[in-house]
């Protein structure tokens, strides 16, 4: 059974927050506002307590890089230094929030790892082909650096960032480029059409997301593309030849069918997959301030260190 704090989050806090967003109308308004005046991303002041933080540029995108504040004294995997390319969620309409920064800061400290967070263009400001290509370019660059240092590269993403992570890995495969060492996905949004027949029933238990709002966000991000195109719905693309997968999802998450379909598709494609389905927990629960997130982070840390 979920902890009391998780139940309160799911049944009290999330219903209040959802009332402020994620209807189709709200999504359209947000995309229009972002296109007219992109949000300024403010990194929390407490981030410096966890990591050294710098900002560089990649293809005109701000790229935040977090590194451990001091040389690691223990816990580092024997395989060498770890780099994590982290792709934030937000339905392709929102920039990262404090929960994202806390997770990546903890990964930086606890793996320990160099964590790279690109602020890719959101719906209305970037075309999916360009966004996926840009992430694939960054993946290739970071993978080359990791290999040269005798280390590992893990591509990780939550929600929409999980979909983008899978699409970028597919793009790397299509280019004939190497795969990362692992792809780690948190409550991934892998099919933006929101047409799976199981989703309406699950939506009654999902107090964060709405099917109509997600479908609208998917259409806005897809632009002229069919939302079913693998560039925006990578679950519709081939999984053959991709890196091993780690996937976490809660059962009170309307995106749960995406994770279950990914597990089935990975088995069919012969991929290694480490799947964790958490009963009664909401969308992106590993980022939430609940006791269950500690075990989820341990799973992600193990994936980064090659412990699983």
Structure characterization notes:
The protein is of the alpha/beta class and 308 residues long. It has a single domain (4-305), classed as 3-Layer(aba) Sandwich (Rossmann fold). 40% of the residues lie in helices and 18% in strands. The chain contains nine helices and eight strands. The protein has helices spanning 4-18, 24-36, 98-110, 128-148, 160-174, 199-203, 211-222, 256-269, 292-305, and strands at 52-58, 61-67, 82-87, 114-118, 152-158, 182-186, 245-252, 273-282. The protein has an eight-stranded mixed sheet, with helices on both faces. The chain starts with a helix and ends with a helix. Residues 73-78 have low confidence and may be disordered.
């Amino acid at each position: 059974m979920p902890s009391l704090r998780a139940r309160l989050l799911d049944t009290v806090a999330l219903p209040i927050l959802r009332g402020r967003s994620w209807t189709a109308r709200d999504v359209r308004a947000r995309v229009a506002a972002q296109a007219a005046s992109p949000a300024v991303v403010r990194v929390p002041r407490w981030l410096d307590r966890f990591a050294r933080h710098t900002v560089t540029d990649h293809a005109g995108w701000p790229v935040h890089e977090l590194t451990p504040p001091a040389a690691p004294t223990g816990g580092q995997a024997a395989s060498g230094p770890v780099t994590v390319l982290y792709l934030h969620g937000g339905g392709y309409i929102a920039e990262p929030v404090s929960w994202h920064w806390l997770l990546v800061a903890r990964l930086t400290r606890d793996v320990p790892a160099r964590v790279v967070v690109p602020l890719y263009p959101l719906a209305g400001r970037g075309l999916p082909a360009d966004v996926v290509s840009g992430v694939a370019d960054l993946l290739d660059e970071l993978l080359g650096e990791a290999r040269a240092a005798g280390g590992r590269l893990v591509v990780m993403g939550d929600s929409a960032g999980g979909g983008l992570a899978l699409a970028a890995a597919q793009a790397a495969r299509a280019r004939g480029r190497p795969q990362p060492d692992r792809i780690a996905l948190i409550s991934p949004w892998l099919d933006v059409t929101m047409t799976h027949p199981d989703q309406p029933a699950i939506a009654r238990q999902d107090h964060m997301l709405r099917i109509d709002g997600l479908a609208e966000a998917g259409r806005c991000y897809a632009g002229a593309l069919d939302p079913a195109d693998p560039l925006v719905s990578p679950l519709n693309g081939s999984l053959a030849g991709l890196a091993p997968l780690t996937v976490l999802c809660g059962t009170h998450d309307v995106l749960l069918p995406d994770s279950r379909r990914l597990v089935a598709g990975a088995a069919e494609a012969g991929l290694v997959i480490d799947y964790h389905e958490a009963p009664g927990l909401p969308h992106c629960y590993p980022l939430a301030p609940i006791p269950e997130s500690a075990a989820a982070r341990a799973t992600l840390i193990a994936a980064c260190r090659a412990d699983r």
